[in-house]
Amino acid sequence: MAEGLSTSRQTCVCKRAEILAVDHPVYLDCNATTPIDPAVRDVVLRYMIEDFGNAGSRTHEYGNRANSAVQKAREQVARVVDAQREDVVFTSGATESNNLAILGLAPFGEREGRRHIVSTQIEHKAVLEPLEALVRRGFKVTLVPPTPGGWVEPDAVLDAVRPDTLLVSIMHVNNETGVIQPISEIADRLDAHPAFMHTDAAQGFGKELEQLRHPRLDMISISAHKLYAPKGVGTLILRRRGFKRAPLEPLMYGGGQERGLRPGTLPVHLVAGLGAAADLALAHHAKWRSACERFRASLLAALEQLQPQLNTPFERSLPNTLNFSLPGLDSEAVMLALKSVVSISNGSACTSSTYAPSHVLSAMGHSEERVAGALRCSWCHLSQQPHWPSVIAAVRSLA
Predict the structure, then answer these.
(1) In a 3-state reduction of DSSP, which class is residue 198?
(2) pLDDT reported for residue 13
(3) Would residue 380 show up in a list of annotated catalytic residues for this protein?
(4) Active-site annotation holder among 12, 30, 292, 350
């Protein structure tokens, strides 16, 4: 009887899988979150089901294996940006890492009388909102506007730096447009200033390699779920400058894990998954980039007949993102029309519930109509090609 019940359940699962394969739209919102790479999934399941020990348990083999997996993951993540294993602090994701970098540095700034921060108008809310919290504590924040193309000019950033500047925080890749910011050039020119430099690298880690290897980047925030690994884990990389790291203070207390900066039991399965994803990104970077470039070419060829206004400059962006506006069409209406065909967005997933216009596109100087019609497609090496004629037909049905 039990065997029959098991067979019945297996049949239901198989039928459900067939239905999902047929009915689910093609997922093109990888800047919000990516699918998990099968190789990463296998690592996660191993440390969830088999080697499930606590990395802090040093009295038995389960704990030792868990701790070994965590140390291996530190090395794997650090290798992507040419950092040291000891530089990697595991967190719940880039949002927590950004908060730890910005708010954790504030007490030092207050003690030293350095209460000025430079950032940009196009940062993710996970940077802008901690900065707003510091303004309420008496800090001064200068937000540099972008060019119409969506990147900030190094001259504009350096012109904003003052003698009392504590921190310069510039994102690596914009989550809405895919535009790569010139952080290595800014880091070069900031070298003579004592200000710490932080970058939110959630969108670019493992996808654009060279800039994040700049030794003047003191702090780098990363999220695993933007790199084909699970949600719920990330890192803050804290490089030494000379012999010292940024003098952060923790935001939480209890347990002393992660050098006292981030207490709590480490989710070993998630940490190991991030490490595996970092390894894969290094090994397959060129191949994955080529796959994204081919996908973009197909997307552009399909969209050509709709005469889109492109908000992403190809020469300054990653090949996995396209932000565009369709004249005369509202983005909400287009997404609704495409709901059964492709899953896309009109901006950051973190602000999608508010239906507020994109602060990124507005800062770039685009008109209200263009911002209201903006759509973001984002894909990866695991993405399927949708049936483009169906996509075009669905959009044309709105005319």
Answers:
(1) strand
(2) 39
(3) no
(4) 350
